[in-house]
Write a structure and sequence with these properties.
Number of strands: 12
Shape: globular
Order of helices and strands: EEEEEEEHHEEEEEH
Number of domains: 1
Radius of gyration: 17 Å
Strand content: 35-45%
Length: 179
């Protein structure tokens, strides 16, 4: 499905890069709440341009992304993993995600991806989750929107306020319970 957020390709310094891996897609999963009741979810996943751009100096031939960002080949290479990595949240909703103190969004990280990370770095994805409109489908599934705001490698940890399994985040979001 084409993306309203990204062109299908980016031409950067005379090299063409494919961005179609960051087109929106959907994931589904089930979660059991604390009472053991099953909840079914359908999640629309979208990615911001921060997954493949950085605040860098503009040079002729760069693919400009917005006013103050340019295409970053390293972020792009790592972003090729994002659909699979975010899919692990649906395949294993017990995966722990962290609510960040600074940006007030969720984060999850991976220790290894391809291409390899710089020594001592982790690959972080920062995202938010909200109820979709309509919040429930005819199939009874809770509909959520997950937007990956940014993803990049970094050393060190991120200051967090809370940690929950991803399924608990989906449950609370679907029920309108603030975290």
């Amino acid at each position: 499905m084409p993306s309203l957020w990204h062109p299908p390709k980016a031409m950067h310094l005379n090299v063409e890069y494919n961005l179609s891996h960051l087109f929106q897609h959907f994931g589904q999963f089930e979660w059991h709440d604390d009472r053991g009741e099953a909840m079914a979810f359908s999640v629309r996943v979208r990615y911001s341009d921060h997954c493949y751009s950085d605040k860098l100096a503009f040079v002729p031939g760069c693919f400009r992304v917005g006013r103050d960002r340019v295409f970053c080949p390293i972020r792009h290479a790592h972003s090729l993993n994002l659909p699979t990595l975010m899919g692990t949240l649906f395949n294993r909703p017990t995966t722990t995600v962290s609510f960040t103190a600074k940006e007030r969004n969720w984060s999850v990280f991976w220790l290894e991806i391809r291409p390899p990370l710089d020594p001592g770095h982790k690959y972080f994805a920062f995202f938010h989750v909200e109820r979709s409109t309509p919040p429930r489908g005819r199939d009874g599934r809770h509909h959520l929107d997950l937007v990956v705001e940014s993803a990049y490698q970094r050393s060190g940890s991120v200051e967090v306020w809370h940690r929950f399994p991803f399924g608990k985040v989906a449950e609370r979001t679907a029920r309108g319970i603030r975290i």
